[in-house]
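Researcher: We're teaching a course module on how sequence relates to structure. For the next exercise, students receive a sequence and then see the predicted structure as C-alpha cells, so they can try to spot secondary structure elements on their own. Here is the exercise chain.
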Amino acid sequence: MAKVKTARLADVVGIINGLCPPHLAEEWDNVGLQVGDPAAKIEKILVCLDAEEIAVEAAQNCGAQLIISHHPVIFKPLTRVSPVDMSGKVVFQAIKNGIAIVSAHTNLDRAADGLNDWLATRLGVQSGVPLEPPQSGAYYKLVVYIPVGHEIEVRNAVLGAGAGHVGDYDNCSFSSCGQGTFRGSVDTQPFIGTAGELETTKEIRFETIVPVVAAQKVVARMLQAHPYEEVAYDLIPLANKENRTGLGRIGALEKTMSLEQFAGLVKQQLQLPAIKLVGDLQQQISRVAVCGGSGMSLLSAALRQGADCLVTADIKFHEAQRARAEGITLIDAGHFATEQIMVAELSQRLREKFSTKQFEVEIIEMATEEDPLVIF
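Model: And here is the predicted structure for the students to work with:
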C-alpha cells in the first residue's frame, strides 16, 4: 500500500503550474501564489471563481488552508494591506487566519484542457482548437554535458525545475554518451583530472525542452546539481508552436441547429435564466467559437475561421453592431457563467493529480458564489 504524503503549498503550486503553466498568462496578469508560505502544510483546499471576502470566510468555516481562485486577488501592486480596502481586506483576513491564496487566470484560459476546452465541451463543440494563433518561440532546447555517474542527479534537478514538458507528457529528455576533452589553467580546480593537463573523459550529452519563462530557474538548478567547476551547456531557441494552447476554442457542433435552438442549449448547459443575442434566431449554426469571460477581442479570429456563432461575455454595443454587419451571431452568456465552470472542472483534475502523487488533500468546491449582475 502506497504511503500517503503530506502536501506543502509549494507542491500544490507545482501541480497547478503543470496543469496551466504560468508562461501562458497575459503579461498584465498576476497568476500563481498571491498569499502564503510555500512551506505551509495543506490538507484542505477551497476552489472558487473569486477570492473575495466571502471565500475567505468559507475557507475559515471549512478549515481550508488554501484558496485556489480563477481571478487573482492582487492585480496591481498593493500600496498597503489594510481591511479598509477591498483587495487589502481579503489579503489581511487571509494572512490573519493563515489561509494561502493561489490564482490560475489567463494561464488556465489558454491551457490545453483548460477553461476554454471545458466551455467548448459543455456547449457541444467538438474537436475544438484554439482561436488564437499558436505561439512560437516560447521554448529553448537545453543541452548540457555531464560526467558519467552524475547524469541522474542533474537530470532530476533540471526536470524538477520545470523542464521536459511536451504536450501531455513530462520528464521528456534524451541522453547520449560521448567523449569530452578539456584543459583547465593552473588556477583551476577541475572536478576530473589535473590543472594544466589535457583531460579526456566519458560524458553524457543530456537534452530537454525548457519554457523560456522557466529557463533562469532551470539553469540555476542545473548548475547547482552539476559537479563541474565550469559547466558546458547551450540554450537553443526553438520555433516549436504551442498548437493546443491559446485563447478561445472553435469547432463544429454534432448537428446543425438554429440560433434559437443553440441559445436554448447554452442557457441549459450554463444554467442561465436569460442570455443576450445578436443575430437572426433562425440562422443556422454549425461552427461555433467560444471564449470564457471577455472574449470579443477574438471576433476577427472567429470570422476568419468561419464561425457561425461566438459565445462569450461582456459584449459592447458597437461590437454587436459590427458582428451583425459581418453576419456572425453572438451569444453573451455572462462573465460569471462562462468562467464559473472552472470550479468543478479544476477540482476534478486536482483530485486526480493529488491521488496520483499520494497527497492526502481534500478539495472543496465553493457553491455559494453568485453573479454580481442579476436580471431584474
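Model: If you want an answer key for the exercise: The domain at 115-132+246-338 is CATH 3.40.1390.30 (Udp-n-acetylmuramoylalanyl-d-glutamate--2,6- Diaminopimelate Ligase; Chain: A, domain 1). The chain has a mean pLDDT of 93.
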